[in-house]
Amino acid sequence: MHSQINTTELCSALVATLSPEANARRNAESYLKKMESVNGFGVVLLQLVQQHSTVNIPEGNGESRIIRSAAAVYFKNLVKKGWSLHLNQQAPNNNEQIDISKEDREAIKQHMVTLVCECGRYGDVMKQLSAALVIISASDFPKNWPNLLPEIVQRLEHSIELRIILGMLITANSIMKRFRYVYKSDALYLELKYVLDSFAVPLTATLTKLCQMLSQAQNTLEVQQILECLRLVARIFFSLNWQDLPEFFEDHMTEWMSRFEMFLQGAEKHPVELGRPLSLLSHDDDTEGPIEALQAAIVENIALYASKYDEEFQPYLQRFAAAVWQRLMHTSRHEKYDHLAVTSIGFLASVIANGVHTAQFSDEATLKNIIESIVAPNLQLRDSDLEQFEDNPKEFINRDLEAADAETRRRSARELVQAMCKHHETKTTQLCIAHASQLLASTNWRDKDAFFQLVTALTIRAESQRAGATRTSNTIDLPQIFSQHIRPELLKSSQENGGHPILLADAIQFVCTFRNQLPGLTEFIPVLATHCQSRHVVVHTYAAYALERLIYSHQFKRQDLEPYLTQLFQALFAVIDAPDSTSIEKQWENEYCVKAVMRLLLVADTAVAPAAQLITDKLVKALARVCGNPRNPKFNHYLFESLAVLIRVVCRGSSCEQNNGNQPSVQADAAASKFEVLLFPPFQSVLQMAVAEFTPYVFQILALLLDFKRELSPAYASLLPPLLHPTLWEHRGNVPALAQLLEAYLRIGTRLILDEGHLEPYLGVFQKLLASKLSEPHAFHLLTALFLSLPPQQIDPYLPTIFRLLLTRLQHNRDRVGLVHYFTAFIGLLAGKRGPSFLLQSLEAAGGQGVGANVLQHVIIPALISVPIFSEERDAKHAAVGLVRLLSEEPNACFSGPSPFWTNAAAALLGLLQANAKITQGGLILVSPLADITAGDDHFVGNVPGADYDAAFSQLAFGATTARPDAFATDVPDLGAYVQTAFTNLAASRPEFNQALQAAHAHPAAHPNLDDNTRA
Q1: At what angle do helices 900-915 and 994-1002 cross, to 10 degrees?
Q2: Which of 28, 289, 393, 696 is deepest in the core (most CB within 10 A)?
Q3: 659 close to 676: Cβ distance less than 8 angstroms
Q4: What is the Cα–Cα distance from 869 to 1016, expressed in whole angstroms?
Q5: HEC string of 194-213?
Q6: What's the predicted TM-score (pTM) here?
Q7: CA–CA separation, 701 vs 647, rounded Å?
Q8: What is the pLDDT of residues 337-348, one digit of tens each?
């Protein structure tokens, strides 16, 4: 073990990370965070994993299990934070990054392969080590890890020990995933060629060896391990064949496909090879077995070949289609076969949808057989689905509403029907309608559920989660189906007349799916309100989801909802107030309900003002509950979105007067103060408890409240010093929100900042933000806010230091157009407000004589010509105003008169104006996002790199403060006219610039080609 690391303390900390005591967890996490910067930490973590994975440790030793699992997790996180550091030269300036030493990197790579072999029996550990391997290999393989593949090949070729073979295949699978689902490139193909040249032959030999070992296997464990090895071989095959069909595998296709066909057909067709070993496997109806996992991987391989290499695979297609069909016929409806069934149905759907194979499936008997033997059984609910509906509703909802739905049998069966309709619509529709009639004739409610599923599949031609069904079949009478079958279910259940809850959930989902095709849905607002109070979690969740989607798609408007607002809010908060289980482990914070609250607040707008305090109390109560144990990030996000919407609605509704331009009204200030009183106590608890998931949200809400205040309250004033403390800025998830909050303080708190000596801490924050590429934009936003908010005599003494920092940053990153744009915007602001002479003097005070002209000519102008489109329109306008003044007022000092430099600069300015056309159309005004009730739908994103191991920053769609002010909104209301006047006056007073001006208009840079390459 490394001498600097006390392994006893480290083990205790790893165990404490799972302590039920919050303080113990925090102390352990703090200790481990400090250890990240100690040389040898990663190596010691691997050694702990190895020590606690040996056969000498009893399997029942709980502490060893925790240590090896936690050590593996922290090792993976360490690799994520620090391994690719050298790929990003800005990363060392970010305190969240860790610089893993060269010695540690080499030691880790030296031991990783051996460790994978020794830990193969622990799935949780292997998952973490495999994830770390993906990261390490993405950075180092093959160039900086040249011995990795030879070592894998050598061990595969010479070992018959399953433990080693399994470890090598896990390692190979981890590093070769890089070839899947990525665009082609020369570099990628070079790597792929290197791997194929080294590994295609050994992989094929390993396949043969494993098949031989399987036929000789003596016990269940041995068979399971061999089948898992074969599954990994199949996944590696998938990776190596994803980009293109390699020549080796084309030449050896028969060898591979014969093996694949054998395993897919199973012991029924191959009793000699597979009968005895497969008979040794245990039969668990709930858990996918190794043979089913292998068969699913094989189906994915043949689906890849059928879709991408149709011509080469043609001789095998009919055989495999038959094999998959037969496998489905012999596959029961037990959960262990779900993955295989879904994959197999997907393969058949892709083959049927491919026009090349239309003739093979045009026969009516074939289509009927598919519907009756594959579609119908897989649309039916199983007992396990009913149990999930009652006992695990969250999983039921996730599989049905979210993307995971694509992995269910029912969704696969629906997609198979849609594939059949693509080329055989008339026959398929007739056959499905006939089967649907049989389902309706049944008295079993499960058949009616299957009817709903079949009609949905038959009707939809295109859909999205955002919009529901966007294109439907012309042969299905949706309004008739709705009136005869859906509407009665909705009303029957709402009237307590014995409707089955699953049929009710089906009916609600049908309305939601076809919301754009069904008229007159507003009559169901009170029905949905009733269903939001259902005791069934799935039903009240679907009702909330449907309500939110119908508002989102403008089906329900304010005048429709207003009579039912109280009922709807009461129903939704009844769910939010009482999580769906008294068991802490099973409690689920229902994000669909809180998102419906957000959307309801949006559409109701000022109509919610009388109930604002009650709604705030409910949201604060929910916030207090989840602070202790944040479990559902989506619920948390929409909880804060709801708060933000409520603040905007109430404070904006109170703004019945305007004072001094953008000054909030007295009424808005009073409303914001009431929110401050309600929210500061729970927010202070969040900050004191250091709830990392919530602090970025809290800062955004605090910034939003300041937008409606006229002056700082004592509470806000006392909060400012801690906000400037460096420790808060170490967590990168805080940075965007904190920077936004400091900008908000500058609008109404400049006197406090100056009187209390906070200006230099502000500038310290600016320097820290400037040091990282990730936080660079916030540095310039803060600097601009300081310049616009503070009196010149307060900020001017710091300008030389500020410019030295900026010029140093620019010197080391002059090729980064984004940085150049931000710098250009700032000096444009300075030139526009204080004059070109002041700007040039400030630059020379920091960088020496002529530095301004040098930066303009050799850095800024080339960058503007290369990429004229700015990421922010305000910055583009600031840059343009400054350039106009420099070109027209200081042409000699900056560009040596009417020289080619001046012509290039003028052409760059004209191109900037054309590329950022909106800045010439008057002042920049941000329309309140509340004007669009569809906003906030996709804002839940952890948009800070590393979000999977640190709480990330998620921008609140409605928490964003109003647009950063256009500094020239009053002085330059019409930028186009301003530029034209400046150049006209220059030409009139200095005729020698006429020719240069004409050359600028003719310059290619004045007429940029606005494709994606022109964007920063």
Answers
A1: 50
A2: 696
A3: no
A4: 7
A5: HHHHHHHHHHHHHHHHHHHH
A6: 0.85
A7: 9
A8: 999 999 999 999
DSSP, collapsed to helix, strand or coil, labels residue 939 as coil
Q: Which residues pair with 449 in a beta bridge?
A: none
Strand partners, 471: 462
Q: Report the C-alpha gap between 847 and 805 in whole angstroms.
A: 10
Are the beta carbons of 414 and 456 closer than 8 angstroms? Answer: yes
Q: What is the DSSP letter of 475?
A: T
Res. 94: pLDDT tops 50? no
Residue with tokens 């990197």: 105
10 Å Cβ neighbour count for 858?
A: 12
pLDDT at 942: 41
SS (H, E, C) 747-809: HHCHHHHHHCCCHHHHHHHHHHHHCCCCCHHHHHHHHHHHHHHCCHHHHHHHHHHHHHHHHHH
DSSP string, 259-312: HHHHHHH-TTT-IIIIIHHHHTS---SSS--HHHHHHHHHHHHHHHHHHH-HHH
Q: Residue 505 belongs to what H/E stretch?
A: helix 501-513
Token pair listed for 5: 């690391």
Q: What values do phi and psi take at 1015, rounded to 5?
A: -100, 140
* Dihedral of alpha carbons 930, 934, 935, 937, sign: positive
CB 83 within 8 A of CB 144: no
Q: Is the peptide bond before 146 cis (omega within 30 degrees of 0)?
A: no
C-alpha distances in Å from residue 764, one per residue of 146, 812, 941: 44, 20, 29
Distance CA 348, CA 336 (A): 20
Q: Which DSSP symbol is given to 382?
A: -
Q: What's the pLDDT at 926?
A: 34
Altogether, the residues listed in the chain come to a count of 1016
Determine the average pLDDT of the residues in 418-447. Answer: 93
So what's the pLDDT on residue 56? 54
212, HSE (Cβ side, Cα atoms, 13 Å)? 7
Choice among 134-138, 433-437, 542-546, 832-836 with the minimum mean pLDDT: 134-138
pLDDT surpassing 50 at residue 87: no
Q: How far apart, in whole angstroms, are the C-alpha atoms of residue 193 and residue 188?
A: 9
pLDDT per residue as tens digits for the range 201-243: 999 999 999 999 999 998 999 999 999 999 999 999 999 999 9
Rounding to the nearest 10 degrees, give the CA dihedral for residues 54, 55, 61, 65.
40
How far apart CA 421 and CA 548 sit, in angstroms, is: 31
Angle at 890 (CA atoms; ends 885, 893), nearest 5 degrees: 145
Q: Is the Cβ–Cβ distance between 46 and 75 less than 8 Å?
A: yes
pLDDT tens-digit readout, 322-379 = 999 999 988 888 989 999 999 999 999 999 988 777 777 888 999 999 999 999 999 9
For residue 925, is pLDDT > 80?
no
Helix (H) or strand (E) holding 460: strand 460-464
Angle at 615 between CA 613 and CA 619, to 5 degrees: 115
Largest CA distance in the chain: 99
1012/1016 Cα distance (integer angstroms): 9
Buried b (16+ CB within 10 A) or exposed e, 790-828: beeeebeebbeebbebbbebbeebbebbbbbbbbbbbbb
Dihedral angle sign, alpha carbons of residues 304, 309, 313, 319? positive
pLDDT higher than threshold 60 for residue 927: no
Measuring CA to CA, how many Å separate 548 from each of 579, 774, 794, 937?
20, 34, 50, 10
Q: How far, in Å, CA of 15 to CA of 24, rounded?
A: 10
User: pLDDT band at 954, cuts 50/70/90?
Assistant: confident
Provide the mean pLDDT of the chain.
Answer: 87
Whether 173 shows a pLDDT value over 50: the answer reads yes
Sign of CA dihedral 644, 647, 649, 652: negative
Residue 181 burial class via C-beta count within 10 angstroms: exposed 0-12, middle 13-18, buried 19 and up: exposed
Residue 717 burial (10 A CB sphere; 0-12, 13-18, 19+): middle
CA distance readout (Å), 232 to 226, 458, 955: 10, 37, 40
